[in-house]
């Protein structure tokens, strides 16, 4: 099997060496080296090359190297080409860590304490038990479910919201637009792990913030285009929101003069919440390739209708 990898080179090299040793029938080429283009059946990529099907006329499978596949313009790809996103334990663990860090930071008032530190202000605030902190996760896929389970184990009062109904033991699950208001009304810390779709673009806006309890906070680790940044700044200004932890922005990188960088109630990280880990992703990749060879269903197939 001839595969081309087009993403972070370090990881590609490790995968290439590992596959050569453990699955020698699979030959992984590291872009821009592609072997014989007509023989390439699988592309594993973050950003695919322009004119993908011209470059690889016999491509049969496109695998995103990340948790999302919104970087692909699905309208430009043949409907028959399966597109798969990455589901692997290292990526999930990274997101669980980031979300836990952000929720604990917000729960323990850290944005306020860091501001106080800069002003050399020794002032304490009451501690709330986690059971009195209502955490809400939007997006209950692989990452959302893992995050919510970790947060529940820390004692937070957890709920989840997703497009279609889900059941998670011990977690109150809301679904669809008709249950969004109820979910928001009970959420002190809102975490967005939604995929980017036409429905989620601009979803985190003034209207949504207004439905949260006053003084709620936001953790955004979905996609930058989901957040209306001016609405976030206004909500922080008015006190409707008290703080935000942002790992994604639009655009990325955020220009140096952008107000989000310097806002005292915002923690901003450069899209590092989680990333596909070379070692742990290998097994997931190989498993999907073998399933594909055997004609079995793949893990993480993108539904073209839903866009994720
Ligand atoms: C990163 O955002 C990813 O999709 O893996």
From TrEMBL:
<keyword id="KW-0520">NAD</keyword>
<dbReference type="InterPro" id="IPR006140">
    <property type="entry name" value="D-isomer_DH_NAD-bd"/>
</dbReference>
<dbReference type="InterPro" id="IPR036291">
    <property type="entry name" value="NAD(P)-bd_dom_sf"/>
</dbReference>
<feature type="domain" description="D-isomer specific 2-hydroxyacid dehydrogenase NAD-binding">
    <location>
        <begin position="102"/>
        <end position="273"/>
    </location>
</feature>
<dbReference type="Pfam" id="PF02826">
    <property type="entry name" value="2-Hacid_dh_C"/>
</dbReference>
<keyword id="KW-0560">Oxidoreductase</keyword>
<protein>
    <submittedName>
        <fullName>Glyoxylate/hydroxypyruvate reductase A</fullName>
    </submittedName>
</protein>
């Amino acid at each position: 099997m001839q595969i081309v990898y087009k993403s972070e080179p370090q990881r590609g090299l490790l995968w290439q060496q590992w596959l050569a040793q453990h699955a020698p029938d699979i030959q992984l080429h590291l872009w821009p080296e592609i072997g014989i283009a007509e023989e390439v059946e699988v592309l594993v990529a973050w950003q695919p090359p322009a004119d993908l099907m011209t470059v690889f006329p016999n491509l049969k499978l496109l695998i995103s190297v990340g948790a999302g596949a919104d970087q692909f313009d699905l309208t430009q790809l043949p409907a028959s080409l399966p597109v798969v996103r990455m589901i692997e334990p290292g990526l999930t663990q990274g997101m669980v860590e980031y979300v836990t860090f952000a929720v604990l930071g917000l729960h323990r008032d850290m944005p306020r304490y860091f501001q106080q530190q800069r002003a050399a202000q020794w002032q304490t605030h009451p501690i709330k038990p986690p059971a009195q902190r209502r955490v809400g996760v939007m997006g209950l896929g692989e990452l959302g479910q893992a995050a919510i389970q970790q947060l529940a184990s820390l004692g937070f009062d957890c709920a989840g919201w997703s497009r279609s109904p889900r059941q998670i033991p011990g977690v109150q699950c809301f679904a669809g637009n008709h249950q969004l208001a109820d979910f928001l009304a009970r959420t002190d810390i809102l975490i967005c792990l939604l995929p980017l779709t036409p429905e989620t673009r601009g979803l985190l806006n003034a209207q949504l913030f207004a439905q949260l309890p006053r003084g709620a906070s936001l953790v955004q680790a979905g996609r930058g285009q989901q957040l209306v940044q001016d609405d976030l700044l206004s909500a922080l200004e008015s006190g409707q929101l008290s703080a935000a932890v942002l790992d994604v922005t639009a655009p990325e990188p955020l220009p140096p003069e952008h107000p989000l960088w310097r806002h005292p109630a915002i923690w901003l990280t450069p899209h590092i919440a989680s990333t596909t880990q070379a070692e742990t992703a290998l097994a997931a990749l190989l498993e999907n390739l073998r399933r594909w060879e055997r004609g079995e269903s793949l893990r993480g197939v993108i539904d073209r209708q839903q866009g994720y």
